[in-house]
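Example record

The entry below shows one chain as it appears in the dataset: sequence first, then C-alpha cells.
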Amino acid sequence: MPRYTLTYAPASRSHMTAPPTVDTFHEQASSLLADADAAIARGDYARAVELAGGALSLAADGRMSVLEAHALGALTAAEARLGDGERAIHHGHCAIVLLQRSGDAGRRSQVLCNLVVAYLCVGLPADALACATAALEAARAVGDPSLVSWALNRSGSTHRALGEAQRGVQLIEEALRLAREHALAEEQSSACNNLCGALLPIAAAQAGDERARTLERAIEIGEQGLALAQGLDNAYGATMCHGVLAGAYLAAGHLDTAFAHATRSRTLAQRHGYRLAALTARIISATLERERGHVEASIALYEALLAEMRGTDDCDWVVAVHQGLHESYKRRPDPARALEHLEALRHFDRQLQEQRARRQVRVMLGKIDIEQASVDGDIPTGASVESGPSGSEFAIDGLDDLVRRAGPAAAAAQVDALQDWLASRARTTDRVIRVAAATLLVIHPETSLVAAEVAFARLQALARDADADGLGLRAVACRFVVAADVVADAAEPAPSNHA
C-alpha cells in the first residue's frame, strides 16, 4: 500500500558478491533477530529496533512471513518501551495479521501483551484492555505459564489505568503467584513492580494504619522487583522499578530515599534512551525537591523541562510540568506566577484532550488500513507510518452552522444519500464505509469536535476522486457532530477523557 514505505535497510548485505538467495535471507534475518531478542532482554531497545528493522527488510525481500512476524513483534516490544507508541501499534497489528495466518498463538500472545504497553503509552487504555483480554485467551490456549503470567500482568496494569485499582491488584497478584510457582524471574520482577504501582492509588484512598500497611507492602514488593531486575541485568526493568519505588517512598513520606530512587531512575533512563521514563523521573525529582523544602531547585527542574518541551507535541508532560510549577510557585509564594501556570495548565489540558482524540482516530484508521490490506494480500509492514490528517477545510463554526440550518434529521438524510452514492464506487466502497462506520463508534458524547473534523478530513481524502459536492461532505461531518451530542455548545468543545 502506498501509505507505508519500507525504510529499514539490511545492515549486512553490502559485502555480497552474488545475488542473495532465500537461504541467505533466512540465515541473515534469523541472526539479526537473535541479536534483537538479546538486545530486548538486556533493555537495549534502540539497538533492538535497528536489528529488528534489518531483519524485517530481509524477511520481506525473501517473503518469509514467519520471520516477518518475529521482526514485527520485536519492533513492537522495543518501540513501545522507547515511547514510540503509534509506531509500535502499527507494527504490532501487522504482526498479529501474520500470526493469525500461521496459527502461532504463543507469539501472538506476546505481541498482544506488547500492544498493551503501546496503547497505554499513547493513553488508550480501552484498546489496551481488548489486547490484554485477547493475549490472556491465547496464552491459556497454549498453556504456557510464562505467557499466562505476562497476560495477567498486562491485564492488571490496564485495569489500573482504567481506574479499577483493586481489580488490577488481583490480576497482578495472580500473575506474580504463577511466576513464583514456576520460578520465572523476569515475570516476577515485572509483576512485583506493577503490583507496587497498583497499590499506590489504593493507599491514597486510605488513612491511618491501613494506609501505612498498604504502603509498607508496596515498598516491600517493589524492592523485591528491583532486586530481581538487577539480578537479571535488565536496565529497563531496573529503571522502571526505581521510578515506581520513588513514588512509593514519596507517598510514605521517606523523601530522601524517594529522591535517591528517582535520581537513579533518571540516570538509567537517560543512559539507555528511555525517554518517557526519564521524563517521569525528572518530574518526580522536581516534586520531591519541593516536598523537601527546596522550592527554588524544584522550580529550576520544572523550568528546564518546560524549555525542552517547547515546540513538541508532549502535551501530557507539559500539563504535568505546569501543574508542578503552579504548586511550586504557590509554595514560594508567588501568586502571580502560580496563576500564570494555572492558566497555562488549563490551555494545554484542552490541547491534550484534542491530541488524544486525534490519536485515537489515527490509530483506528491505521488498524482499518491494515485489515483492508490483509484482505488484499498486501500487509503494510514498513516502518514509515503516516502521522494522520492534521485538520480539514471545515471550521468548527461552519459545522455548527450547518447543523443549525439543516437540522439533525436533514443532515442525517444527506449523509445516508452520500454514503449510498459512495457505495456505487467499486474501489472506495469498503474502506470509505468502514471508516465512516468505525469513526461513528469513536465520536461519542465526550469527544471534542476537533476529533470529528479529523475523522472527516480522512473520509474526504478517501473520497477525493468522487464528484460529491461540498454540502454532502459537510453533511458527513454533521452526522458525527450529531452523534457526539454536543451541537448545543459547539463553541466550547467537550473534553475527551475516554482516551
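Notes for this example: The longest helix spans residues 335-376. The two ends are 28 Å apart (CA to CA).
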